[in-house]
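Customer escalation, tier 2.

The customer says the design service returned an amino acid string that "doesn't look like it belongs to this structure." They asked us to rerun it and document both sides in this ticket. The original structure tokens are below, unchanged.
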């Protein structure tokens, strides 16, 4: 006699396994030849971008490079002029995709008459898998400010509230568009500590910035966009070596024969000050030490 019940269970188990594997291998974001034009201006120009689950990716570029327009298309808030974009294999403007995404955009204003907890309570009702209010407030560092009205919040606290709103739906993918642009150094460090806490659970994070140091401090991968086009894509270290470097300044006894493209100043006390811009400061200093040169007053700065 055939075990129909057992067979059915195995069939269900097999289907679930295939679905889980497909979900794991499907890119979180997949954009192909994605473009957006505003009249004669091409803001995003034929961008190809694939982001996998668990990646923390920085979109790096100067102001006006097309970062915000790109993120708006990935969110489904703006229609492309050309190309395609899928999020979790879905249309990003559809409810199913949006329910799995959180976003912190530059232009988001909360009603100033509501309190912090009231804003979070309101927004979380839009999501099928909402986090508890206290969990969201704790993650954003807002528990002690929960009764404050939005009008009473400082700029830094408003940014925390925007972050809390983005986390309300327990998102698998989090977008952050220039999230620290208006923050001072202390508030910026506190904000990124909160984002690291969110990302530590294996979530996917995509954020835009024009600050390479900020990208280096958080991202696994940096995508550089200029005039709407991706011009580089790699690890923070790879990108830093291509678009920047370090300034090495030191005092030594003699100028190495192999030294090129350096600024040299004689002190008049039998020593020289050497200033070099290099993408590999460690290699430069190793050659100095291996050559037996005495090195003092060493400074290495990005």
């Amino acid at each position: 006699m055939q075990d129909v019940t057992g067979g059915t269970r195995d069939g269900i188990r097999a289907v679930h396994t295939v679905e889980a594997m497909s979900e794991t291998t499907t890119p979180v974001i997949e954009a192909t030849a994605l473009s957006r034009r505003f009249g004669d201006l091409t803001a995003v120009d034929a961008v190809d971008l694939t982001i996998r689950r668990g990646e923390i990716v920085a979109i790096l570029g100067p102001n006006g490079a097309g970062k915000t327009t790109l993120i708006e298309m990935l969110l489904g808030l703006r229609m492309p002029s050309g190309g395609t974009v899928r999020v979790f294999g879905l249309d990003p403007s559809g409810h199913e995709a949006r329910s799995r995404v959180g976003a912190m955009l530059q232009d988001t204003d909360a009603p100033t008459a509501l309190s912090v907890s009231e804003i979070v309570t309101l927004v979380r009702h839009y999501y099928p898998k909402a986090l508890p209010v206290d969990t969201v407030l704790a993650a954003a560092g807002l528990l002690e400010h929960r009764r404050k009205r939005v009008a009473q919040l400082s700029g830094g606290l408003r940014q925390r509230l925007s972050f809390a709103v983005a986390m309300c739906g327990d998102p698998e993918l989090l977008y952050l568009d220039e999230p620290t642009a208006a923050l001072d150094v202390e508030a910026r460090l506190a904000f990124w500590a909160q984002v690291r806490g969110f990302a530590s659970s294996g979530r996917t994070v995509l954020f835009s910035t024009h600050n390479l140091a900020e990208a280096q401090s958080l991202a696994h991968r940096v995508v550089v966009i200029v005039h709407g086009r991706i011009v580089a894509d790699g690890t923070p270290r790879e990108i830093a070596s291509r678009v920047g470097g370090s300034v090495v300044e030191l005092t030594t006894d003699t100028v190495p024969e192999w030294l090129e493209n350096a600024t040299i100043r004689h002190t008049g006390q039998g020593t020289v000050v050497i200033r070099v811009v290099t993408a590999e400061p460690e290699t430069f200093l190793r050659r100095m030490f291996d050559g037996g040169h005495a090195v003092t007053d060493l400074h290495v700065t990005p």
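Tier 2 assessment: The sequence is consistent with the input. Residues 1-9, 14-21 have pLDDT under 50 and may be disordered. The CA atoms of residues 76 and 92 lie 5 Å apart. Sent an explanation to the customer and offered a walkthrough call.
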